[in-house]
Amino acid sequence: MDQVYLKIWQLAKPYYKKGRVYDIDQINWMMPMANTIAGKEGLNKKILIPLVILHDVGWSKVGELSPNIKDKETKKIHMKASAQIAQEILENVEYDKKLTKKIVYYISVHDNWVLGDNKPFEESKEMAFFNDLDFLYVTSSFQTFKTMGESMSMNPKEFYQFWQNDEKLVNRPFCCEETGKMFEESMRKIKKEINSYEKQSENQSFSHRHPQPREKGKI
Predict the structure, then answer these.
(1) Are 139 and 183 in contact (CB under 8 A)?
(2) DSSP codes, 104-161
(3) Residues 113, 171 contacting (CB under 8 angstroms)
């Protein structure tokens, strides 16, 4: 990855450390995905990579460690703050001014889907692909999936049903074959892990209800 992107990431990290509990993990997951797939899909990395790195820096101004991922008000607050911080960071690294303007605009509307506005993702393939990755991060691991579900007061099984019917799949379909396949595969893995999680929870519950009797002479 180009040095300028690594510099942007280093400048963004202090903000992410003040944001949500999973922010740094999310960017670390999204960056290599964006870097690898962008070349295959003919996407402009000069727009996409800074967008990926900087899009959520504004959560540092919201003050919630694990907010509801569908909450409109916190989405609006963090988009505005993210755009302002992104502008400062890109100017700091002397990024191309025309690209900076476009990136900052995209960051300012990157969650507009929650407001019913899907135009930014229809007008730019970089934005459409970014939205795919942002959505896919939720299923990147069972722990992440569980945390996102908890933000909406859902257990993993409930959240699985919700996520496989999310409005994105109708309103912003995956922009390329690879991200669509990634979603199918990650959901298969999540389903298996949910089954294991539920069995483990059942066993633990049974053990609490039916404790093993102690052998005589043992404490």
Answers:
(1) yes
(2) HHHHHTTTGGGGT--HHHHH-HHHHHHHHHHHHGGGSSHHHHHHHHHHTT--HHHHHH
(3) yes
pLDDT, tens digit, 9 for 90 and up, residues 113-152: 999 999 999 999 999 999 999 999 999 999 999 999 999 9
For residue 206, being part of any structural domain is answered with no
What range defines the domain where residue 173 resides?
3-200
Among 50, 26, 28, which Cα is nearest to 105's?
50
Q: Quick one: DSSP state of residue 61?
A: G
Nearest one of 30, 18, 21 to 55, comparing CA atoms: 30
Angle subtended at Cα 186 by Cα 163 and Cα 173, rounded to the nearest 5 degrees:
55
> Is the Cβ–Cβ distance between 121 and 2 less than 8 Å?
no
pTM above 0.85, yes or no: yes
CB half-sphere exposure, 193, CA atoms < 13 A? 17
In the numeric block, which tokens belong to residue 183?
A: 């979603």
In contact, 89 and 11? CB cutoff 8 Å = yes
Q: Return the closest-CA partner of residue 193 out of 154, 160, 151.
A: 160
**Residue 66 domain-assigned?**
yes
* Per-residue CA distances from 46 to 1, 49, 50, 102, 137 (Å): 11, 6, 7, 11, 21
Tokens, residue 70? 């569908």
The total of structural domains in the chain comes to 1
Measured between alpha carbons, how far is 7 from 93 in angstroms, rounded to an integer? Answer: 8
